[in-house]
Amino acid sequence: MPEDNKDTIAGPKAIGEIESKMRLEGVVKSTEIFGVLVDVGVDHDGLLHISEIKKHNDGMDKQDLDVGQKITVWVKKKDDSSGQISLTLKEPLALEWNDLKSGETYLGKVTRLERFGAFVDIGTERPGLVHVREITMGRVEHPEEILEIGEEVEVQLIGINKKKRQINLSMRTLEQQFMDSEDDDDPVPTAMELALRAAMKPEAEEKQDKPLRNKKESSAQEDILRRTLEGRPND
User: Fold this and answer.
1) Using CB atoms within 10 A of its CB, is residue 113 exposed (0-12), middle (13-18) or buried (19+)?
2) Which of these, 179, 105, 182, lies nearest to 136 by C-alpha position?
3) Closest CA to 145 of 174, 118, 108, 175
4) Is 195's pLDDT higher than 70?
5) Which of 5, 11, 41, 222 has the smallest count of CB within 10 Å of its CB?
6) In this structure, what is the dihedral angle of CA atoms 53, 56, 60, 64, given to the nearest 10 degrees?
7) How far apart are CA 151 and CA 146, in angstroms?
8) What per-residue string of b and e applies to 211-220 under the rule 16 or more CB within 10 Å gives b?
9) CA-to-CA dists, residue 119 to 111, 166, 201, 229, angstroms
10) Which domains does the chain have, with CATH numbers?
11) How far apart are CA 38 and CA 48, in angstroms?
């Protein structure tokens, strides 16, 4: 392969810069019994194993990939110590099953609407289901009242069944959390605020006592005036 071919390859320049699931533009360097070696522009060639070629390239054999041919590959895994870079022809999933965690929030796209709920693609092997009861806090007869196909929505993972490959999502829980945060208008007072309130309390109580004392004094004066007008001596 000509030396200037590397200049046409965009991407990382060293194996340490390569990350799992990274997309790379490479050039077929050689074909071997076990697969194809691909120049991806770093100090080590990547290996596109024969099984990856047959699995993800419509049954193509390595002979269908010519030396010098430009191809798009993704990093399946790498080992910095040994310099091994395993490649695949299929774009990896954004989220593997082991990446999913209950309670986590994801951004997804509505792919299908059924009466029982909406299917949302969050980057996993298959879309997750937002049951009609989990779409909103209000009553919904059909998801199409709220959602549209292709719409991006924020969802929370509320359940997963790896054996059945089921992912249960919710939009209602996020709506409830938002409503709860809106209702919480009374922040917890700081220590300084509590001390200030305590210092102001005696002053407030004193102000409350003054009207009571003035009221008693006024009542006594009125009683003396009434007795005087009636011609009765003071007790």
Assistant:
1) buried
2) 179
3) 118
4) no
5) 222
6) -60
7) 10
8) eeeeeeeeee
9) 6, 11, 58, 91
10) 3-88 (2.40.50.140), 97-183 (2.40.50.140)
11) 7
**Rounded Cα distance, 141 and 138, in Å:** 10
Residue 31 identity = T
pLDDT digits (tens, 9 = 90+) for 46-99: 899 988 887 765 555 555 788 999 999 999 888 888 888 999 998 888 888 888
- Burial of residue 142, with CB atoms counted within 10 A of its CB: 0-12 exposed, 13-18 middle, 19 or more buried: middle
pLDDT tens-digit series, residues 93-114: 888 888 899 999 999 999 999 9
Half-sphere exposure of residue 96: CA atoms within 13 angstroms, side-chain side: 7
* Amino acid at position 155, single letter: V
Percentage with pLDDT > 90 across the chain: 38
